[in-house]
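Final report, results section. Input specification for complex C-07:
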Amino acid sequence: MDPTLLTVAEASHAIAEGRLSPVELTDAYLDRIDALDGELHSYVLVLHDAARSAAREIAAGRSRGALHGIPIGLKDIYKTRGIRTTAGSPRYLDHVPDEDAESWVKLRDAGAILLGKQETHEFAIGGPDFTLPFPPARNPWNTAHYPAGSSSGSAVAVAAGLCAAALGSDTGGSIRGPAAYNGIVGLKPTYGRVSRRGVFPLSYTLDHCGPLTRTVEDCAIMMQALAGYDPQDPASADLPVPDYRAALGKRLDGLTIGVIRHFHERDAVADFGADNAPNPTYVEAFDNACRVLESLGARLVDLQLSPLIDYVDANRLIMLAEAYALHETDFRERPHLFGHHMFARIALGAFLSAADYVEAVRQRRELALEYANALTNVDVAISANATGPAPRINAVSTYSTFERASYTGPYNLTGSPALSVPIGFESGLPLAFQIAGKPFDEAGVMRVGYAFEQATEFHRQRPSMAESLPRHQ
Amino acid sequence: MAEEPILWERFAVLVERAGLTLTPEQFEELRQGYRFVERMIRTVRRSRDRAAEPAHIFVHPKD
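Structure output:
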């Protein structure tokens, strides 16, 4: 059997029982990368020799746990010591860090094997940009379509079976957007839950690191290794980490789920324009997902928050201000080192005042409190993710980032955990919704996501490109 | 978003104050994109109680 078809949980089990070797698994993934990534562009650097060497070392050693011998990929904003890390930017084309991102260290200590560095929008914001040295990653469900970003390469690689799992980052939806368009699972944990140390920043107070996986169970396995206090990340929270897999179950009896419908049913069109109307197939898929949750024993209630634009524009303004401040010297002195989209988007931050920023941060506090109060009487909330299938990649405009409604940004603003899970398909392209929770309740959102996943088949469908190579069938 | 972009002369002042050196193409693209900044500012600029503080602290949940 092709071992790349196995989930992390299944591969881990097979390795623990001696039915699969980390070397065989790593070779199978490298074969797939060599065969398919010329079309998908999900990797900017493939570590053939280093991955094989690590696999041999892992295979010869004692078991390190659930990630023992599992091949993964890293978005190329995660620093890797001695291994080029570009942040997708011409500015860092030859940048070789002398430190490892803390979250990669945690995965490596848990036995993960690094297959390579994965394509990212420039500094996690400027893409898909055809002017950059690395071509944008392509959606494996249809390579003419956009895989979303900025963790584009990571999501594409997971969906296409070019790694077992990956790490992305999320400032306004850069894990959950790609998860949605690629038909996989993506978690933005609570701000402070997973270390950001050693990851190129985009926006200090909105950046989150988290996993992209094929299933919620795999997400729980990754989070078990990733979560925890890092005294060298100033935002890191010193709180206990629960047993995430132990929280997973097939029923949701006794749970109350708040449904935030007005974001997609009213606010998107009212505040962002008619072309933001949810696709009818999406609305049907969202409503079906609600019925599935009810059938599992959950009680659904309507949740009302402030209009979507209040969350989204505060999130975008803070991101612009912080990102511009971070890159201001280069914008003034070395603008030629930026790709087109990065420059056109983040240079807008130059025109914000200090008072604009402070007002956005005051609004952030109001909305975070509103969200916390709204969740007082429910266990988790659900809301839309992208409300239609992935557009064609050449139809994504420079300012689509600011022009269109975003359903993911609210949870960056509140800092709360949010999980993207597949809920259907349209025209052969995946659709997804989000399960959001209270701060530090990743276990709660994964519990709901897992139960939903077990009751549906969407996560089992894979793009035809993810089928086995002939020599592995 | 059908609003008119900021006037060329007004935007030139903003660019100069920001210390950016732009090509004509960059200037025009940013001038068009500035509409989104204006919208964001409108969204967050509202009457608030003077005691309404920024989100500068994070309260951990109590056991």
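Chain A has 15 helices and eleven strands. The interface with chain B takes residues 191-192, 205, 237, 239, 273, 309-310, 313-314, 316-317, 320, 331-332, 335, 343-345, 347-348, 350-352, 356, 358-366, 368, 398-399, 402-403, 415, 438-440 of chain A (CB under 8 Å). This concludes the modelling results for the funded period.
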